[in-house]
Amino acid sequence: MRTRKRQGWHRYINGVTVGTTLTVLFVTLPLLWMISSSFKGPAGIGSDSVLPHNVSTINYTSAFQHNGFGHYILNSVIVAVVSTILVLTLGTMAGYALGRLPMRAKLPVMVTLLMISVFPAIAVIVPLFLIMKDLGWLNSYQALIVPYTAFNLPFAIWILRNYMLGIPKEMEETARIDGAGPITTLWKIIIPQARPGLFTAGIFTFTACWTEFLMAISFNSVNAYRTIPVGIALFGSQFTIPYGTIFAASAAAAVPIAVLVLVFRKSVVSGLTAGAVKG
Amino acid sequence: MATSVSAAPPTRGGPAGASEVVGRPDAHRKRMARLGWMFTSPALLFIGLVTLFPIGFSVLLSFENVNVTANGFSLNGLTTANYSLVLGNSTWHYALGFTVGYTIITVLAEVVIGTLIALVLERMVRGRGWMMALLLIPWSLVTVISAELWKYIYDPTYGFADGLLHTLGLGSPVILGSNVSAIIALMVADVWKTTPFVSIIVLAGLVMLPGEIYEAAEVDGATGWTTFWKITFPLLRPTIALAVLFRVLQAFGLFDLPFVLTQGGPGTATTSLAVLGYQATFNDYKYGPGAAVATTTALLVVLGCFAFLKVFRSQVGEEDAG
């Protein structure tokens, strides 16, 4: 890391502090405004005051009691948790094999996976919609769990494979000499070592499921199966936009994920940079 | 692309007992390879069935006369009508141009701003971890929520954006009401949400650069500007290229933001290819043309992927050889 000695006022006002301040303002101002607006009463919405004059929870009551936002959160949790478990299970097995077992054709498999992980969802919306319509799967949990698992698996396999590559070979050899089968080795030796990778892949999958919108609105538009993004997008009517309700719901949906991401920031950063920096 | 899935040999038998472990090395290797495919095939089958199969089906649909029936759909023969309808349609021409232009401008802006932020963060002595955490918040935010947030900011009655423009002496336009300002507004919202992603990737690349080169440059009396263009940027190019490709492919699927913020309007000013495909399918029930839009979009993405592949091949190939 480079450091420069700064003297006089340059110690306090320089490119770094100015740039940092601008970045902080750029990122946080819209968010803080949203959270503050969610606590404003009907008269306060639209006023230019930064903080609410009278703190009111009327928007939260509207979101949760009158608009059933709690049920959307439940739907999102079910879909995201089940998809994440499926991704981690299938992804660990595949990541282990592609990282550590002597297979042919690893390169084409990994490249295909990489391509799929960046494929825009719109390319499969029409066929998946028709297939699900045929299967009677529209407006159900599996309508989202199945595609979310498939679309998040490729990236998870990449991350897990990169972590598995880094585990020393000797540990596996020792287990083999001790008479452990491959499944025991995977369970007892590899998985504990690859835990940071599992964390990263898990957070990524969960966040992706939590935020996905196109499939959710295409396959599960009925009220009972709406997830958070669909619920928020469909609040209100064509003529009035209930911003207060929307922001209360948004804050309730965004804060848990923001906390999760802040707590696990190291895993998230290492996952984001998994492609950029050699694993 | 489907070949990689079918390349898996049929998996026979379970993992062998421990007694066989001390066998001939290549017999062991062979067994381990079979085990590898056994472990990989559930994931590959799942991915293949839910992503590659529908893509193939979508290509078929795009050449079919699709009729919607009460509880499903029927295919009534091959046709190229879907493509002639889509390719000759001025809305599609516009959506293609809009999506390409939007992708180029936003990704360019994100890379410039993102790199600047990364350069600042790299020089931070304390609190860099927290700044990175802060940058993760927009990244983790549901895009629909950020779209609602910006809709509020742009709202002529409630928002502060028009007041800000007025103060800057730019008049007081209805921001989402005219084509150009709606497109700019959409881009600003996109840059806000995704620039942090770019800066985190670039920062990771910056931190990995060898420090000695900079010491040498400083000894030689190079200025900051020269150092950046002569040393930092060339070394950083692979990282930036990667961030660009990731973002280009993502931006090309643009949907959530215009769907909520502008509904593709005013008129069709912010109708991206994904919004057009969605509207054709779910508003107009035109599955054939919808599939044609999806297929042409996918084709363009595949072309983009080949560029992606070029950057990645060296990296993957090296590890694979070991």
Short description:
The complex is a heterodimer of chains A (279) and B (322). With 279 residues, chain A is mostly helical. Chain A has helices at 15-38, 58-66, 69-100, 106-117, 122-135, 142-165, 169-177, 182-193, 195-211, 214-219, 228-233, 243-263, 265-272.
Give an account of the 3D structure.
The complex is a heterodimer of chains A (279) and B (322). Chain A is mostly helical. Chain A has a single domain (65-272), classed as MetI-like (MetI-like fold, Orthogonal Bundle). Helices cover 70% and strands 0% of the residues of chain A. Chain A has 13 helices and no strands. Chain A has helices at 15-38, 58-66, 69-100, 106-117, 122-135, 142-165, 169-177, 182-193, 195-211, 214-219, 228-233, 243-263, 265-272. With 322 residues, chain B is mostly helical. Chain B folds into 2 domains: 3-60, no CATH class; 91-321, Orthogonal Bundle (MetI-like fold). Helix content of chain B is 73%, strand content 4%. Chain B has 13 helices and 2 strands; from the N terminus they run H-H-E-E-H-H-H-H-H-H-H-H-H-H-H. Chain B has helices spanning 3-6, 25-62, 81-87, 90-123, 128-140, 143-154, 161-167, 179-207, 211-219, 224-252, 256-261, 273-283, 287-321; strands spanning 64-69, 72-78. A two-stranded antiparallel ribbon of chain B has the order 1-2. In chain B, strand 1 and strand 2 (72-78) form a beta hairpin. Chain B is flat, with a radius of gyration of 25 Å. Chain B starts with a helix and ends with a helix. In chain B, 42% of the residues are buried.
